[in-house]
Design brief:
CATH class: Alpha Beta
Largest sheet: 6 strands, mixed
CATH architecture: 3-Layer(aba) Sandwich
Number of strands: 6
Distance between the termini: 48 Å
Helix content: 40-55%
CATH superfamily: Zn-dependent exopeptidases
CATH topology: Aminopeptidase
Strand content: 15-25%
Number of helices: 7
Order of helices and strands: HEHEHEEHEHEHH
């Protein structure tokens, strides 16, 4: 009897905690694994497809961020390679904006891999709107976190008024596209896949820090 009572109390406690966190969401972060389905993205020399690497990293970032604070709700644009949006780029991008708005995103992160004819090109970069100071702060924090683990090199923060990106430009919340590295650099591509958890931790930690700071100032 005592055993059953204990189990009941544990289950009740878990349910209470679940409903507490669900009702005390401090931010909704929509994470977009670049490309997917019909669109493989860039392809590395070894046949690695960008869409596969971005999906693995996006899910790890989301899982890590939610673990850091369960009040942070994470929503994935896709959580596998099956996509239900139109198989043309224009409607694809429009669909991602609609999805983010439907989810009432407070932050939007799009994860991609870069490509170049220069097979030695390496490093990560960010794309944000020029007036998006929050995403700029997140990008700087990611840089700092990655520098601490001596990861690759930053290629800087780019503004989408100079290099337009439809999704970033058409969302009214802090929105960023991050090129995590070069898929065309075989060494960097391997390192990204081997160190997904480590990279995800640094990216998630940056979002966590800024979200908490924003929450404290509201």
């Amino acid at each position: 009897m005592i055993g059953l009572l204990t189990i009941f109390l544990v289950i009740s406690g878990c349910l209470c905690m679940h409903f507490y966190y669900e009702s005390h969401t401090i931010a909704t972060v929509v994470i977009d694994a670049g490309h997917g389905g019909y669109d493989p993205g860039s392809i590395g020399a070894d046949g690695t497809m960008e869409k596969d690497v971005t999906l693995k990293l996006a899910k790890q970032v989301g899982k890590t961020l939610h673990r850091m604070d369960r009040r942070i709700k994470v929503v994935y644009v896709r959580d596998d390679d099956v996509v239900d949006w139109a198989d043309n780029e224009t409607d694809d991008l429009i669909g991602r904006v609609i999805f983010a708005n439907e989810q009432k995103a407070d932050y939007y992160l799009s994860i991609h891999l870069d490509a170049s004819e220069n097979l030695e090109a390496r490093g990560y970069s960010f794309y944000i709107r020029s007036d998006d100071d929050i995403s700029r702060a997140i990008a700087y924090q990611i840089e700092e976190n990655l520098n601490q683990i001596h990861w690759s090199q930053s290629r800087g923060i780019n503004q989408t008024d100079q290099e337009p990106l439809y999704v970033v430009n058409n969302l009214q919340v802090p929105s960023m596209l991050m090129e995590v590295g070069f898929i065309t650099n075989s060494e960097e591509c391997r390192n990204i896949q081997r160190n997904t958890r480590m990279l995800a931790k640094q990216i998630a930690a940056a979002y966590y820090d800024i979200i908490i700071k924003q929450t404290e100032t509201e």
